[in-house]
Design brief:
Layout (H helix, E strand, L loop, with lengths): L1 H6 L5 H20 L6 H7 L2 H13 L5 H15 L7 H4 L4 H16 L4 H5 L8 H16 L3 H10 L1
């Protein structure tokens, strides 16, 4: 059964874009309905769909080596894992906050290894990717090593 699953073609670019837009709309709606949520937290949560999109595109980029793709895969798995530090099933889209921190950690690692253009050409977000990575890194790097995916990524980047 696994071999059959692997032989299936990836969803079309249109279906991938639909998923991305639906996820962005869901997160935006959550943020709009939570005016009491601290502004910076909701601001970071809004980047979750963009970062997930970037990680999936990096996974498909042939210029990225296998070791780096393992780190990207760890970041993607953290997004889709049903149980993580802040599970979305319990917290709602606010649970993407830890996913954002892990994704930025992975992307920052890639930015230190590959030319910036290799990463930024896949970026679909509205804000400058490098500014976002710097902003989140400044506030989140101290927490990422405590997260399971953060430890896994550190293992691959040694």
């Amino acid at each position: 059964m696994t071999n059959e699953y692997l032989k299936k073609p990836m969803p079309s670019e249109e279906k991938q874009q639909d998923f991305y837009q639906k996820l962005r709309a869901k997160v935006q709606k959550w943020v709009d309905n939570k005016p009491g949520v601290v502004g910076t937290v909701s601001g970071y949560v809004l980047f979750a769909p963009d970062l997930f999109h970037l990680l999936t595109k990096m996974m498909l980029d042939g210029r990225i080596d296998a070791k780096s793709k393992a780190a990207v895969g760890a970041g993607i798995m953290y997004f889709i894992a049903p149980i993580d530090f802040m599970p979305e099933i319990l917290v709602g889209p606010g649970g993407f906050l830890d996913d954002v921190v892990v994704a930025v950690f992975v992307i920052n690692t890639l930015l230190n290894k590959f030319p910036t253009e290799v990463i930024t050409e896949h970026w679909a977000g509205d804000e400058d990717l490098l500014a976002l990575v710097k902003k989140v890194s400044n506030s989140g790097n101290k927490y990422v090593s405590k997260l399971p995916a953060g430890r896994l990524v550190k293992r691959f980047t040694k």
